[in-house]
Amino acid sequence: MAKIVKKIIKITIPAGKATMAPPIGPTLAPYGINAQDFCAQFNEKTRENDGILTPVILTIYEDRTFGFELKTPPTSELIRRELRIKLGSARPNLDKVGKLSKEQVMKIVEVKMPDLNTSDPEQAAKIIAGTAKQMGVEVEL
């Protein structure tokens, strides 16, 4: 018999660094979920991506159990990590903060491909390039 879904929560947490502190503890407490169990499972699954922001879709069931699905990190996070920059540009058309090579874009495409709405790597590269341009990053395609 299928479990009855009580709530679906979307939350973004640094990989390998989930704790009972906000936003996790206060988000899960009203549903009677053991946040410590969630944190332990999340940290175990995301240990290799230490510190990178990771979106999670958390499904809470009526019987107070839960399941979660990890999504790929936000594109902007991957671009910032690839270029080793702290932030994108406040004025992306005027101030450039870095330059992505074709190889760097394809590396990001490999990571993001499961969550993009295309199966064509070249089209995915254009999606990544669009995000990069909005951050003030030049792209070589």
TrEMBL record:
<dbReference type="Pfam" id="PF03946">
    <property type="entry name" value="Ribosomal_L11_N"/>
</dbReference>
<keyword id="KW-0694">RNA-binding</keyword>
<keyword id="KW-0699">rRNA-binding</keyword>
<comment type="function">
    <text>Forms part of the ribosomal stalk which helps the ribosome interact with GTP-bound translation factors.</text>
</comment>
<dbReference type="InterPro" id="IPR000911">
    <property type="entry name" value="Ribosomal_uL11"/>
</dbReference>
<keyword id="KW-0488">Methylation</keyword>
<dbReference type="Pfam" id="PF00298">
    <property type="entry name" value="Ribosomal_L11"/>
</dbReference>
<dbReference type="GO" id="GO:0022625">
    <property type="term" value="C:cytosolic large ribosomal subunit"/>
</dbReference>
<dbReference type="InterPro" id="IPR020784">
    <property type="entry name" value="Ribosomal_uL11_N"/>
</dbReference>
<dbReference type="InterPro" id="IPR036796">
    <property type="entry name" value="Ribosomal_uL11_N_sf"/>
</dbReference>
<feature type="domain" description="Large ribosomal subunit protein uL11 C-terminal">
    <location>
        <begin position="71"/>
        <end position="139"/>
    </location>
</feature>
<feature type="domain" description="Large ribosomal subunit protein uL11 N-terminal">
    <location>
        <begin position="9"/>
        <end position="66"/>
    </location>
</feature>
<dbReference type="InterPro" id="IPR006519">
    <property type="entry name" value="Ribosomal_uL11_bac-typ"/>
</dbReference>
<dbReference type="InterPro" id="IPR020785">
    <property type="entry name" value="Ribosomal_uL11_CS"/>
</dbReference>
<dbReference type="InterPro" id="IPR036769">
    <property type="entry name" value="Ribosomal_uL11_C_sf"/>
</dbReference>
<keyword id="KW-0687">Ribonucleoprotein</keyword>
<keyword id="KW-0689">Ribosomal protein</keyword>
<dbReference type="InterPro" id="IPR020783">
    <property type="entry name" value="Ribosomal_uL11_C"/>
</dbReference>
<comment type="subunit">
    <text>Part of the ribosomal stalk of the 50S ribosomal subunit. Interacts with L10 and the large rRNA to form the base of the stalk. L10 forms an elongated spine to which L12 dimers bind in a sequential fashion forming a multimeric L10(L12)X complex.</text>
</comment>
<dbReference type="GO" id="GO:0006412">
    <property type="term" value="P:translation"/>
</dbReference>
<comment type="similarity">
    <text>Belongs to the universal ribosomal protein uL11 family.</text>
</comment>
<protein>
    <recommendedName>
        <fullName>Large ribosomal subunit protein uL11</fullName>
    </recommendedName>
</protein>
<dbReference type="GO" id="GO:0070180">
    <property type="term" value="F:large ribosomal subunit rRNA binding"/>
</dbReference>
<dbReference type="GO" id="GO:0003735">
    <property type="term" value="F:structural constituent of ribosome"/>
</dbReference>
